Each structure stands twice: as C-alpha cells, then as structure tokens.
UniProtKB/TrEMBL annotation:
Record's protein name: T9SS type A sorting domain-containing protein
Pfam assignment, any one: Por_Secre_tail
Superkingdom of origin organism: Bacteria
Stretches assigned to the Secretion system C-terminal sorting domain: 331-406
InterPro entries xrefs: GlcNAc_PI_deacetylase-related, LmbE-like_dom_sf, Secre_tail
NCBIfam families: Por_Secre_tail
Length: 410
C-alpha cells in the first residue's frame, strides 16, 4: 500500500512539473521567480569566475538573473573609452545569455534609475537586469588610482572619506550608504521565489591574493543581505589560476562563451582584447563555497512592493513554519557536479531522506538517523546518480513527508 501511494505521488509530481515548465530564458509570469544576483567589482568578474553558473541561472525555468557591477574598472586608462568599452562588453555578454536558447526579441532597454538618492545606469533584457555603479577602480591593494584621487571601496569601508563615481554624478558618503543602495536594488529585483547571491569570497583563507575590489564586493554583498533569507555562493578569484581545472567541457564552454562576448565588446570599442594569457589562465575553473542565511527579514516582493517579514516567504505561512517539516529546493538545479538541499525539522526525531527514480526505485539513502530540531544541509554529488534525468528527493520525519524534484545534467 505504502509503495503504491509513493508511486502515485511520484507520478503526480512528474506530470505537474512537465505541465507547468515554461520556455527557456523567458521571464516568469507567476509570482514565484527565483532570482540569482551577481554582485561583482568589475565588468568581467562574473564571466571569468562565475560564468558557468550565470549561464545556467538565465536558462533556468522561472528564473531571473541580476548583475551588479560596482566599479568602472578604469584602472590606469585615461578618459572614458576603456571603461565604457568594458561596460559595453558586459552588457553584450548579459544579452548573449538571454539569447542562448531563444531568438532575440528586442533591443535591450538602457536607462537610469533613482535608488537611495543615487542615479544608476542599468539595462533590462528578457529575464535579466544589469546595474552599473561606475565607482573608481581601487587598484590591487585598495590604494586607488591617481586619476580618481586615490578613492577606493576599501577606503570607503575603513571610513577614509566618501567615494564619487567616475562621472562625478553620485557620491556615497559612507559604507552604509552604499550598502543600503545595493540592498534596495536587491529588494526591487526580488520576487517571492528564492534569492541566490553570487559574489567574490571576501575571506583570505578561502580566496587568497585576490583584488581588493573583489573582496570589497563580497563584503558589500554580505552587508546588503544581512538578516535576509538568501543563499550566498562565494567564489574564488585570481587564485583559481593556481588550481586544477574543475569544470566539465560543457561548463567550460559556457564560461568561454560569455567571456568571449565580453572581449568582443572591448574590441568593438577600440580597446585591446582581454582574450590573452593573463585572463585565459582562469578558464576551465570555478571554485566557490556556499552559505545559507535564514534571516530575520526575508525579502518578499508582492505587487511591486518590497516588504520585510519575520524570515518566512509568506506572512500567512508563519504558524505552519513552526510545526511543519520543510524541504527547500536544492541549488543549483539542474546540476552536473554538486548541489545542496536544505531541510528544517520542527522538532527532534528520526529522519529518513531517500532519492528515488521516477519508477519509485530507491537510488540512494542520504539520511537515516536521529537529528535535532532546526536546519540541516545535505550535499548531493552527481556520482550518486546512475544517469542523467529526473529524480525525486523525499524526506520523512515526525509522521510528515516532503518531496522535491532533482534534475541531473551531465
């Protein structure tokens, strides 16, 4: 009887997923849109160090990707041509992601928006957005450059004055001012789905010898998302050049594709290409770690109004969250290397978590033991699965059970 019910449940889940699957790279029309934010220092950071994930996020059903570039990345170059070409390359690579699986629909909409008293350049296209704050590049150690009066994100964070963008339009008087601005961008772009923050790792222990702006981008992302419900993926920067290649050929192709589009934007703007040994040494590598924040003020966007609640996705769900077993969707999903699944136990008890194929056969027992109340994580590895395809993760605890779909892509 139990197995019959399980087979029926698996079949109904599979039919439901097939029926509601939207087209690739199209903005979701329903309220539950998962949003992947890429908060970086320079216009080529996400392509080089997060490119494979960014590609997948834009293609994900009911998903959206938002790119925030904090600095202009002007380096030593005089005038505006260099940093504008870098920005054009970034815009083109974002557009290429949205057009990877579907034909171009229109010209990207470029405009400015007023956020927290600052005027910020941005672009919208399909299920993507990109924001460009155009702050001064802070140089490798945060000492800044002469052409921008030696301003830097590192100095702003340490309280050494304000920072003004390279056009002289916006001045951020403090780290808190900049953090609030980023927080408002995240709130404005968030939906009622999951929020994923992709950003450089700010800890030397995990990300040694990195650019100061990279580290400051990671610190700013953490500050802007404090006390909010999110999952943060923190990436290694320059140090990946000294690590072994770990991307599969399809993943490496995605990374190379978005970076090549960026490079084309440089040459179209009359600048030298970045497709050179100094940058290509990062290809084929993507290292990161994950941190989940349950938060006390999870961002919820309802009817274009951003609100904060007590850490659950919908205020009406608060009573249930105290007594019900919760199984969160794994991320990333689909995945071709590893993914993390999170569950919450309302009380201590015996927990069983299994992976089933769509015929109801047990593929793997992930958990089978007594556990304490609260949040728990389980990492999923592709070698735990016999083949590509769809699977069901089921958890049982305290007389309750929950299921989530998994998609393996090799």
């Amino acid at each position: 009887m139990g197995k019959t019910l399980l087979r029926a449940a698996l079949l109904s889940i599979f039919v439901c997923f097939q029926a509601v699957r939207p087209g690739w790279a199209q903005e979701a029309k329903g309220p539950a849109t998962d949003v992947g934010f890429y908060i970086v220092a320079h216009q080529d950071d996400w392509q080089l160090f997060m490119g494979s994930h960014a590609y997948d996020d834009v293609q994900r059903p009911r998903g959206k990707a938002v790119f925030v570039c904090l600095t202009a990345g002007q380096a030593y170059e005089p005038g505006e041509n260099y940093w504008r070409a870098r920005e054009a390359g970034c815009r083109a690579s974002v557009q290429s992601l949205a057009d990877a699986k579907t034909p171009p629909t229109s010209t990207p909409v470029s405009s400015t928006v007023r956020i927290n008293g600052h005027t910020i350049a941005m672009m919208r296209y399909k299920n993507t957005s990109a924001y460009f704050l155009r702050l001064p590049d802070g140089n490798l150690q945060g000492q800044g450059f002469d052409r921008c009066n030696f301003q830097s994100l590192k100095k702003l964070r340490s309280g050494e004055g304000s920072i003004t963008d390279v056009e002289g339009i916006n001045t951020y008087t403090s780290w808190g001012d900049l953090s609030r601005t980023l927080r408002m961008i995240i709130q404005q772009e968030s939906s009622t789905g999951k929020v994923w923050i992709n950003t450089p790792d700010s800890e030397d222990k995990y990300n040694p010898r990195d650019h100061s702006d990279h580290q400051m981008a990671g610190r700013l992302a953490a500050s802007a998302t404090a006390n909010t419900e999110s999952c943060m993926l923190m990436y290694v920067g320059y140090d990946v050049a000294f690590r072994k290649t770990n991307l599969s050929p399809p993943q490496a192709a995605k990374q190379a594709s978005v970076f090549s589009i960026y490079c084309q934007g440089l040459t179209n703007g009359g600048q030298a290409t970045a497709w050179d040994p100094g940058h290509l040494r990062f290809m084929g590598r993507q290292y990161y770690r994950t941190r989940h924040s349950s938060g006390s003020a999870a961002v919820v966007r309802v009817n274009a109004i951003t609100q904060a609640n007590t850490g659950v996705e919908e205020a009406d769900d608060a009573p249930e969250a105290e007594t019900s077993l919760k199984l969160e969707p794994n991320y990333p999903n689909p995945f071709d290397q590893a993914s993390m699944i999170v569950y919450h136990l309302p009380q201590a008890g015996f927990v069983t978590m299994r992976i089933y194929d769509l015929r109801g056969n047990v593929i793997k027992v992930l958990v089978q033991k007594e556990e304490t109340a609260g949040r728990h994580e389980v990492w999923l590895e592709v070698d735990q699965f016999p083949a590509s395809g769809q699977y069901i993760c089921q958890i049982q605890a305290g007389g309750q059970h929950r299921e989530q779909r998994l998609q393996i892509s090799r």
